[in-house]
Amino acid sequence: MRCGTYRGGVTWFYDPRATYEDNLAHGPFGAFAADAGADADAGPSPAVAPAEELPTLSFLGRPVCRPFGIPAGPLVNAAFCEAAFAHAFDIAVYKTVRTGAHPSHPFPNCLAVRTAGPLDPGRLDTLVADSALDAARSISNSFGVPSRDPDAWQPDMARAVAAAGAGQVLVGSFQGTRGPGGEDAYVADHVHAAALCVEAGAPVLEMNLSCPNEGTGALLCFDTRLVARIAGAVKEEVGDVPLVLKLAHFPTDEALDALLRATSPLVDGYAAINTVPARLVTDEGRPALPGRGREVAGVCGEAIAPAALAMVRRLAAWRADAGAGFAIVGVGGVMDTAGVAAHVAAGADAVMSATGAMIDPLLGRRVAAVSWPR
Length: 374
Ligand SMILES: Cc1cc2nc3c(=O)[nH]c(=O)nc-3n(C[C@H](O)[C@H](O)[C@H](O)COP(=O)(O)O)c2cc1C
Fold this sequence. Notes:
By secondary structure, the chain is an alpha/beta fold. The chain is built from ten helices and 15 strands. The chain is globular, with a radius of gyration of 19 Å. The structure holds flavin mononucleotide. Flavin mononucleotide binds near residues 71, 145, 173, 354 and 355. Flavin mononucleotide binds near residues 71, 141, 143, 275 and 300.
């Protein structure tokens, strides 16, 4: 099994130059690999707090050493989650699961995206994307939310839950799948997916409402009526298990206000943002990703940091105005400890990094080596 090396020799723990199936079967790689002791390329490990450190912070009522982790996506199975916990990412989100097996979009899924600066989420940019990942700071994310069958992922998620040490939390991410049964069946599928995660032992749930690949034309998170219906049904099923809604960047304050009014009495938190869409093309202007419906794909990493921070600020301002108590998980463009501090200053209670952690697998240790920002 070949896996690519980047940045002067450091290997990403999720290898974007291998297929999703290869990552699932053979990962994690690089500093996260089982034989990572041999990966001298990862460089010196930043000082990390001692193992006997007592968790003094909390995330949705669970004690955590630091409310920092890796969001839904790069941690595709328990082996990845175990490695994330071992590298001081104290919140690990198990990649979004479904109630039935679902294939991944064809390879490639993550390309390096060339940006001239931060992306404006109010505009659909056309950007060149290619396989020059060595110096990438922003990447595409076009997987179509693949899932194994629950018979395969449930025992694996249980193993990931068990891997959390003191002061660490595994989050189970899930979403519903549209089928021929109409809205009632779609709601029921979300409830079933949540129940399967709880059965696997997930102590916190995240419902992905921001998948750009569901073929619905518009993201579920923008359909306030349906989200409220689904969130109510899921919460009724899972009871006290905290439920976080994963959101995209909202275009208007009115739309965000409507969603928060309808759902904040039901749920425990919001994670924002998912990716910012862009039209991805080759140097010659052809679609960069193969297959129909993939001309526009989500971009994540450094270029979406301002959009993510803006959403966190809007959520925090709404929460303060309403006197609400929900948690805010800041996600998007966090590449270093300064990015973590920026999210906390914007109002995030927990912070996560997908692209940044993939590029720098020691980011958890770097965050652990400084005091948590306040
Ligand atoms: C490889 C990869 C796979 C992802 N898969 C999912 C997913 O299954 N569910 C989800 O809610 N978000 C998924 N995401 C989005 C991330 O959770 C996150 O919202 C986004 O990447 C922005 O964070 P970043 O800038 O730190 O990468 C994925 C991201 C990446 C990079």
